[in-house]
Amino acid sequence: MKKLLIIILLSPFVLQAQETNRKIRFGMKVAPLFSWIKQDFDLNNASISDDYEVDGGGLRLGFNWGPQVEIVLNETFLLSTGVDINYSTGKVTGRAARNPVQSYNFDQLYKMRFIELPLMIKGRTKEIGHMRYFMSFGLSAGFRYKASTEFTEEIGGSEITTPNTNSNTYINAFRGALLVGGGVEYNISGNTSLVASIMFNNGLTNVLKDQQKTDPATGILYLFDDFNFVRERGINNHMMLNVGILF
């Protein structure tokens, strides 16, 4: 009877220890983000006027969310992965001239939706009180599932905006990125923790499609719109604030 009573009294602690030592953790995160496009346009084109200018359009607000999975290698190191649904935007601004007497300001706004598959190494401290601190480093592969753009030109004080919802026209299908960040876990109970982190998602590949196309039948160069007489290249970066829960 005494043995049975001892087993009953100790069983919650044994179960909690087993739960804490789980090798796989699951969770969910949400992340508001700031994104921007670091442009690198090819201006080596004799048809471009000397007063052509192009610049980044500043920070744009976006959003990221998705399920997380962590594989516990030991108390200090984990593999972190999941599926991220990424909503980001970026803008390119500048000034161009169609002819020697007519110039205009333009904005090219890109709206991008990617499904991203991150894989990171996560190094964390031992539990200090209810807290653990960690750093993460890894790579991400992103696949476009939707994209659109808005081209706005200002001529003589009037603005004309031309939308385009064809994702195949302006945004490349793949986006590779380097992930670096750090944060904190707060243990609620057993293996359940609240997690907050800051993550820099640094694009490695060009997300903007080259708009200069050659007709295979005639060999004549043609363009999709007035703005795209240059070879577009741009890197899309994010700064994310992740908030989530792991079980």
Task: Describe the overall structure.
With 247 residues, the protein is mainly beta. It has a single domain, classed as Porin (Beta Barrel), CATH 2.40.160.20. Helix content is 9%, strand content 63%. It has 2 helices and 13 strands, in the order αββββββββαβββββ. The strands form 2 sheets. Strands 1, 2, 3, 4, 5, 6, 7, 8, 9, 10 and 13 form an 11-stranded antiparallel beta sheet that branches. The radius of gyration is 25 Å and the shape is elongated. The two termini are 35 Å apart.
* Largest sheet composition: 11 strands, antiparallel
Percent helix: under 10%
Number of helices: 2
Number of domains: 1
How does the overall form come out from the CA principal axes? elongated
Estimated share of beta-strand residues: over 45%
- What assembly state would you assign to the polypeptide chains in this entry? single chain
Mean pLDDT: 79
Q: Which regions contain 5 or more consecutive residues with pLDDT less than 50?
A: 1-19, 43-50, 221-227
CATH topology: Porin
| SS-derived structural category | mainly beta
**How many runs of DSSP E, i.e. beta strands?**
13
CATH architecture: Beta Barrel
CA-CA gap between termini:
35 Å
- Give, in order, the helices and strands: HEEEEEEEEHEEEEE
CATH class: Mainly Beta
Radius of gyration: 25 Å
